[in-house]
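Question: Hello, beginner here. Any chance you could explain the protein record under this note? Any guidance would be welcome.
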Amino acid sequence: MSAEKTVLAVLGTRPEAIKLSPLVLAGKQRKQFDFLVCNTGQHRQMSDQVLDLFGLQADFDLDVMRAEQTLTGITVDILTRMQDCLDRCRPDWVVVQGDTTTSFAAALAAFYRKIPVAHVEAGLRTGNIYAPWPEEMNRRLVSELATLHFPPTQSAAENLLREGIAPDRMLVTGNTGIDALKGLVKRLADDAMLRDRAANLLNAAGLKTGSWSQGRPYVLVTCHRRESFGAGLEAICTAVLRLANRFPGYDFIYPVHPNPRVRETVNRLLATGIANVQLIEPLEYLPFVRLMAEAELILTDSGGVQEEAPSLGKRVVVLRDETERTEGLETGLIRLAGTDPEKVVGFALDALEGRWPLADSADVYGDGRASERIIDAIAAHSSL
């Protein structure tokens, strides 16, 4: 390649920051690229924390986060503010990740400028445009806009092939989130100061020390998706209460998402004085990985946790009716419960009473080298 290529990675949420940080770091090691970062600020504090953990700073900040922001408002703000960002850096490529409103709006803004888009974590599908909502439609639309597609698994690639994406425009890479996870787990093992930092952040979030540092077992709970708002989240909280009463020797640790609708429901139903239910503040990625790595069981609606848990050998009850990450189900470490309290409680009982045995860790979503493969593919395509 004769000239340096400018690549703009656009992120705005914590999962995007986690999954794009190792890619940006890999890109910055290549002399043929000028790798820049744009943070839309869709989830301001959480994305900034992740970038700091990986030693990165945003080169452009769109600052779109607002109280009670709507999907329409976020989309309009990102589209409008991306114009100035693209004018200033004039990228040869725009890289987006996954299925957020940030990824869709940034890809559309790049398309309007005829800038090629590389889509990381492409091809995930449930087949239901309302589950997850709006993510399923976001990622379908990004697939229409992208030039290069990087599905994390073969099944994701097959989804793209069925939709008419040419094989020479895609590469199965593994998931960059596993790159981030493996790197951080190694850092935690090697660095006592980093372990202390994680412990201090857990304490600052309100976690009682005995829950995780003195051998007391715990179940980790996360739930934040829009399709669970209302009755679904109430049902999940009911299941957690039943489990907490059934297992007083376990703590149930729930880092509560900052969304006001989530916090109102969770606080109303779970902040009832039960000693072994701990509602704590949202966690940065570093302490969350430490909690996840030591949990007996995880209850979650998070896509990222579904990917990470098999690599850690953790059992997961998925609080969604459908999942686009079907490979995890095949490991025996993940079971799909939806928001039905009976299923959630039943699967948790299987795990905590010994009927759902632990399995070996399984790297079904990647070997930690996805970022290098993506950088190689962008470099090869840029030289054509």
About this structure: The chain has a mean pLDDT of 93. The two ends are 9 Å apart (CA to CA). The chain has two domains: 5-174+368-380, 192-353.
